[in-house]
Amino acid sequence: MAEAYIEFKNITKRFGGTTALTDVSFEIQEGEIHCICGENGSGKSTLMNLCGGIILPSSGEIWLNGKPEHITTVAKSEHLGFAVVHQEVPRCQNMSIAHNIFLGSSESIRGLFLNEKYMAAKTQELLDTFQLKLSPEQIVETLSIAEQSMVQIAKAIYFKPKILILDEPTASMTNNQRDIMFKIIKELQHEYGTTIIYISHRLEEIKEIGDRVTILRDGQYIATKKVVDVNIDQLVNLMVGRNIEHCKEDQKSVRNEVLLKVENLTHTGKFNNISFELNKGEILGLGGFVGAGRTEVLMSLFGDMKLDEGKIFVEHKEVKIKSPRDAIKHGIGLIPENRRDHSLIAEMSIQQNAQMVILKKLIKRLFINKKKADKNIDEMIHKYGIKVNNLSNSIMSLSGGNQQKVVIARWISNQPKILLCDEPTRGIDVGAKEEVYSILRNIVREGIGIIVVSSELPELINLCDRIIVMHEGKITGELNREEACEEAVIRFASAIG
Amino acid sequence: MKTNQELNPIKESELHSKNKKLFREFGILMVLAVIFVALSIASPSFLIPINLINIVRQTVEIGIMAIGMTFIIIAGEIDLSVGSIFGATAMFAAVLFQKGTDPTLTFFFAIAMGSGIGFINGFLSTKAKMPSFIVTLGILQLFRSVAYGISNGRSISSFPDSATNSWVFGFGGNIGIIPVQVIILVAFLVVAHFILKKTKLGFDTYATGGNKKAALLAGINIDRVKMICFIIAGALCSFAGLISIAYLQSVPTTAGQGREMDVIAAVILGGAALTGGRGSILGTAIGALIMSIIKNGMVLLGVPAFWQTGFIGAVIILAVLLDTRISRSNSFK
């Protein structure tokens, strides 16, 4: 057995009164791909922030090459050879890709000036490796989230770290992009002997890429296993500490009534001639790779993106949707892809975030009716199983899964006819995912129609009654529940169907 | 049941956030208390009732203007033009009073003018998609000129009896020993507090400043919210202008010049975030009070005039520094 390269020794980390990690000890060998998995709040990210020099352990030590190291600053961490790609890194949104890659590096400076040519050339090489059709000058803001995380990983890899830490890197990626990234990671491992710590709660990824896997639960070390020795069900049990039944109920809630019909929706450059129908009680999936125009279709239906052409009918009546307010008036709700930037207001409480949409109905003579509001929120919490102790706490004090349930509750309480969900389970753990699925399945029984955009194929296939697949802004295929399988979706998505 | 174990950590962090909430206005209140005690010791005339009433009276104009600014800053915008709105509307009203226009009509004309300028600020910052910093910087200059223009560059200081005997000029008087303007300020503070904390408009204002995109996608008409904030601010500035006429019985051409800095400082001292989404009327009121207590104290202590502004600058930096230290040490993560 190889020698321990990184050792975590009895690490405990407290934040105020909250304990994020309790006496965690395990080791990582040189040159392995070591996965760390656990539900949200299990302490994965805390562990990585310790390696990144962002926080210090309350007690315990990190040993590197048999020596204890105090990783007190980010610079120290980098000096020791760590490169951490965080889950949601604040990038310099209004700077180019090239400038983001070379941010803080002295390599790009020639004399007193920036060496633009050198940066552009090196960035182009990186983009080619990642098979990204982007130019180094492109502003990061204009990239999709998946592309942004690829750029982030490219930046980390460029400086050839000894230890690369990836925190949920594939959260918004398509299978295709993920495969490219995996290939690059494996090359790194083989050619440079880089040690890779891979954090994910996508278990199939761990099976695909990992050598060993460490499971954390509620801040405690549970086990380290060789990936070949465990199957996905065993991993789930270790992570959750309970059995999750994958509910594949085949109840038919689809009614024979058209709820939404769109004709020839076009936004030049994003999508063309999109036509489909959504029935009452139906969950319709929009499949395809990132950049196929799925999110854009949702955003246009919700009035946040202009339509160049096309008609929208809700319950057989043509409607004009020019703003999100119009959409809400016609009974449409949206759960956006980017929870932190597009759903939540960090400065506001859990209750305020939950009642943003329904507030109008809680007003009595100009003032917000506190009794009514409190009753309404109590109902929400019970109905959707939101785990919360004090409703006046900041929304950011909740785990990702509970935040998402708040967002879903926000819309459902407004009794929409149509709910648009863009990556509804992005960045939330296995347990919460199942809860989100069951909430969505429950509400379609009441006759609501749902459109789901998801890059996770198992999610689309298990959840949706019907899947429409898009490729470069056009619909390339449609699959019903019986036909739907991963292969079929991918064939349409890459337009080789 | 396992839930007990799971919920415990949340309970702890909740205690934390409660402390933070308590301290947010508590901190600035302590600053006020320290300054108050220090001045009571340093100057024997500070604690005299007349002086205390005077301090509150001196808070009125900045306080009223800061209410509007609080709305705007919470909504994530800024208004640099408040001093000019104050000056131009006061000058406009003074001209009308002098011409013998009906005082009640004049009152409404002045308020309409203030609201109108607020509307222009709001319209250009939302529909024309310009940054409010730039829009209101332009309006600041523009309406300073208007103030000079409508008075031909001179101050106005004598009004006919029909004006001075009217209810509008009653703003400058007293009820018992309490100045009417102080009562008006308190009334405005109370109303504004309830609007911000208890109504949909208040909620929408916090939401818009907290996360514009999320607010938009939740169906909040963020452009209208901002517009209303600018209009409220404009109307309040003109109201402050009218109070100033009634009290001083004159309007200098430079009325309100540089006032925007005092107003913004009061709001920031009160704990509002320039990035939006955070702030309160209670905080702003304390902030405005601190500004006038310091000014008053410096006069009592005989601090040379040229050092006074410098001292205020230092207090602002210290107070905000303290505030950021507190919020950083208590934040999550």
Could you outline the blueprint of secondary structure elements for this entry?
The complex is a heterodimer of chains A (497) and B (333).
Chain A: E1 4-15, E2 18-29, E3 33-37, H1 44-51, E4 59-64, E5 67-69, H2 74-79, E6 82-85, H3 97-101, E7 109-110, E8 113-114, H4 116-129, H5 145-158, E9 163-167, H6 175-192, E10 195-199, H7 203-209, E11 212-217, E12 220-226, H8 232-240, E13 258-267, E14 271-279, E15 283-287, H9 294-301, E16 309-314, E17 317-319, H10 324-329, E18 332-335, H11 339-343, H12 350-354, E19 363-364, E20 367-368, H13 370-384, H14 400-412, E21 418-422, H15 430-445, E22 449-453, H16 457-463, E23 466-471, E24 474-480, H17 486-493
Parallel strand pairs in A: 3-10, 3-11, 6-9, 9-10, 15-22, 15-23, 18-21, 21-22
Antiparallel strand pairs in A: 1-2, 1-4, 4-5, 7-8, 11-12, 13-14, 13-16, 16-17, 19-20, 23-24
Helix pairs in contact in A: 14-15
Chain B: H1 3-42, H2 49-74, H3 82-98, H4 103-126, H5 132-150, H6 161-164, E1 174-175, E2 178-179, H7 180-198, H8 200-210, H9 212-217, H10 222-248, H11 259-269, H12 281-300, H13 305-330
Antiparallel strand pairs in B: 1-2
Task: Describe what is shown at a glance.
Chain A is an alpha/beta fold and 497 residues long.
